[in-house]
Specification:
430 residues, 23% helix, 20 strands, ten-stranded mixed beta sheet, alpha/beta, globular
Length: 430
């Protein structure tokens, strides 16, 4: 890492010193790790498919707060609350808490740590330079606490809109805690303009006994953006964590889910869909750690890449020695729409117990010529037929999205992605 790059981020760290006193030591330790390791490179096994040369070659300052007239897209489904961030900063004036404030505790990260300085030690540091820099430079985020027994029926939307943030970055951190038997659906959305910016976000969650957290991520960043995202989730007895990541935008995008199943009957379902247009790179990572007996996990990932698009999936299941009766499944399938498209897969099982049912599978291929012929022979034009097959291919990874409205909205985004590819090809041909 160059001295200029290191000095720039060190100056950003200095500017944050004293802003949240309980974070100062945490920031310093995290930045020391970042300075030692730098940005991950292809030499690291976990990052072999993610090209971060944009981060290594360019300096990203902390994003400034945009003007108050920033355009916030409409909701895509009925929500219990809408929490708005613009350029990585919480906007109370644009948010709508609905009735959620009566049932749950919601506060900005800074307020939470000012009132509870001892909670700074709860922050996950991660194991690479991306997470370290987030920890060192985090400036905003939300702390959402759902009390025991409380069930939030509609999704809580957290939307981050990037506008006028060229060569700027945001480092947000969200904390979620569900009490025993609580239920919550979180919809995270990421939207931006076509400037070159970087969104670096972490969500960490604790799902206690009998609680259910459903987490849907819809990533539609601008065409020149870098998007790096991590979730760190621990699940207690009979608790469940379901997540589905839909990656559509950005120049380079990477999502990681790190889940620990800590007690008997804990469950995790991790799904994802990535659609890579020309020049885009989408990487999805899932690490599930089965610590105790009778835990269950399931992973379903589908990716599609057109000409010179690139997708990657890295999934790892670890079953500890004491985690007998574990059931863990992993499925990855990639569809290549052109011979210049690229898909990579690295499924892993690391099993130390002997009474388990674990499986993984990975396939990469092209559109089924027979299915395409079948549709066209019945009067469906080739373009529409291809679109139908792609949508059917990705749908298996979307089945666990809660609520018909939300599921339909996500499917509409995938359909629009395909239609945009068709329109682009048509314009090029003309």
């Amino acid at each position: 890492m160059s001295d200029i790059l290191s000095d720039t981020y060190r100056n950003q760290l200095s500017a944050l010193t004293g802003m949240i006193p309980s974070l100062d030591d945490v920031r310093t330790r995290a930045f020391k790790k970042f300075a030692e390791t730098g940005f991950p490179s292809a030499r690291s096994e976990d990052w072999r498919y993610s090209d971060l040369k944009t981060l290594r070659k360019n300096i990203f300052e902390q994003a400034a707060k945009p003007h108050s007239d920033a355009t916030i897209p409409a909701t895509i489904c009925k929500t219990a609350a809408r929490l708005v961030f613009t350029n990585g900063q919480y906007r109370e004036d644009l948010s709508d808490l609905g009735d959620l404030w009566q049932a749950a505790s919601i506060r900005p990260l800074a307020n939470h740590l000012m009132a509870n300085p001892d909670r700074a030690s709860d922050l996950v540091h991660g194991n690479d330079g991306i997470a370290a820099l987030n920890t060192a430079l985090m400036r905003d985020g939300l702390v959402l606490n759902i009390p025991a027994g409380v069930e939030i029926d509609e999704p809580v939307e957290i939307i981050n809109v990037m506008s006028g943030a060229a060569e700027a970055a945001t480092h947000t951190r969200h904390l979620i805690e569900l009490g025993e038997g609580a239920k919550l659906t979180v919809l995270e959305r990421f939207i931006g303009d076509d400037s070159a910016y970087w969104v670096n976000t972490i969500m960490q969650a604790r799902v206690t006994e009998g609680a259910v957290l459903k987490h849907i991520r819809l990533q539609e960043e601008g065409s020149n953006a870098v998007h790096t995202a991590k979730t760190f989730v621990s699940v207690g007895a009979e608790g469940r964590y379901d997540t589905c990541n839909i990656s559509l935008g950005g120049l380079v995008a990477r999502f990681e889910a790190h889940v620990r199943l800590l007690v008997d009957e804990a469950t995790a379902n991790i799904d994802g869909v990535a659609l890579a247009a020309t020049g885009q790179s989408h990487d999805m990572v899932a690490h599930v750690d089965h610590r105790m007996p009778n835990t269950t996990s399931d992973q379903i990932f589908r990716t599609v890449a057109e000409a010179r698009g690139k997708t990657a999936f890295q999934g790892k299941i670890v079953v500890a020695k004491d985690a007998q009766k574990t059931i863990a499944d992993q499925s990855f399938k990639a569809l290549l729409l052109d011979r210049t498209a690229e898909a990579n897969a690295k499924p892993e099982l690391e099993i130390f117990a002997d009474d388990v049912k674990c499986s993984h599978g990975a396939t990469i291929g092209e559109l089924d010529a027979k299915a395409l012929f079948y549709l066209t022979s019945r009067g469906i034009d080739p373009v529409t037929a291809r679109q139908m097959l792609v949508e059917a291919f990705t749908d298996h990874a979307l089945l666990r999205i809660p609520g018909e409205d939300l599921g339909d909205a996500v499917r509409d985004r995938i359909s629009a992605w395909m239609q945009a590819r068709v329109n682009s090809a048509t314009e090029s041909a003309a």
